[in-house]
Amino acid sequence: MDIHEYQAKDILGRFGVPVPKGGLAYSPEQAAYRARELGGHAWVVKAQVHAGGRGAAGGVRLCRSVEEVQTYAASLFGRQLATKQTDAAGKGVYRLWVEPACDIARELYLGFVLDRKSERIMIVASAHGGMEIEDLAETDPMSLRRMTIDPATGLVEFQARELAFGLGLTGTQITQMVTILKACYRAYRDLDAMMVEINPLVITGAGDLLALDAKMSFDTNALFRRPEIAELRDRSQEDPRESTAGDHGLAYVGLTGDIGCIINGAGLAMATMDMIKLAGGEPANFLDIGGGASPERVVRAFRTVLADRAVSVILVNIFAGINRCDWVAEGVVKAYREVGMTLPVVVRLAGTNVEEGKAILQGSGLPLITADTLAEAAAKAVAARPNLAA
Ligand code: ADP
Ligand code: MG
Predict the structure, then answer these.
(1) Which domains does the chain have, with CATH numbers?
(2) Which candidate, 78, 124, 289, 352, has a CA 20 to 30 Å from the CA of 37?
(3) Residues contacting 28, CB < 8 A, separation 6+
(4) Which pLDDT tens digit goes with each residue over 45-56?
């Protein structure tokens, strides 16, 4: 789960990272008020969306008067901001962060990620911040420094100092950097984070370190024990198809095709998507309804898949091991009637109680298209798409 920049700054600030003072705004008037409240002569207004690359996309701007803050804020609110890190549709801007413009001498990069290879938290740092880490890895890979942290000792001082020296820091900056590194590490570890990124971490004109941007992402599976983090969730930044499915305990990932998939088991779902592609089609989604799919759950799965307007045919593929085909068939029939289905539906059942399942489908009198194998089901789904003959 991602959170906003201002929320990450608040969290990291409480762990000891120096962050700028600032104010949150939900309207242009409030943005102007925040600027006045902060005082000074120049402010940076920043769109709060769950994506980086806002600067280059016009979502971060230096404003030299309160009027400019308000005008720029008015142009941002309600807009969809598309950055290098979003899809073409972008993310809606409903909150702005206003902070004093900072006098920047240098921009550094600092990130904490989970390194699967060493099974440890890894620090990635570079003396050249500001640009995205992906670009940095391409244009200046030699500047990237990596360091893994032993969970038994935690981040130790000499390691932190070594990194600070490596970034070319001097004097009190070294102590400041050690504090920042330890704070980020503790925040990462204690809050079940998956990623902490400060880009840029700047050296100000006065020579002090300051986190001008912050990004944090959390392990969804650990949110049950981090209610204060779970609370920071912002549904406006999520794919509505995925959040609704998640609420109902369905593993759903939205895709760009038009063949809606209802499948049990992640492996079978992946295989089905491959077969659809092989047959010349494009899946609209990945959906795993799980092992014990009751008729009610199947109905929910139908609703979830149909919420995507691009769907033109539904493919149900169930291999019942724990599940029972007759249950799933009941669910399909129920869903078909409840949602007033107008699209073609292809059903392939295999496994436990398959004959009973098939009998229910046939006995329903509904115009369901049935298939015996996965390949047949995929081919029939592709063929059933209306008016898509290329
Ligand atoms: P993103 O990473 O989404 O583009 P950032 O918060 O990193 O957004 O802002 C982009 C750039 O804008 C930064 O690299 C920095 O140069 C500049 N910037 C951000 N905040 C401030 C600030 N308070 N004062 C001055 N410049 C800033
Ligand atoms: Mg940034």
Answers:
(1) 1-20+104-238 (3.30.470.20), 21-101 (3.30.1490.20), 239-389 (3.40.50.261)
(2) 78
(3) 70, 71, 73, 74, 77
(4) 999 999 999 999
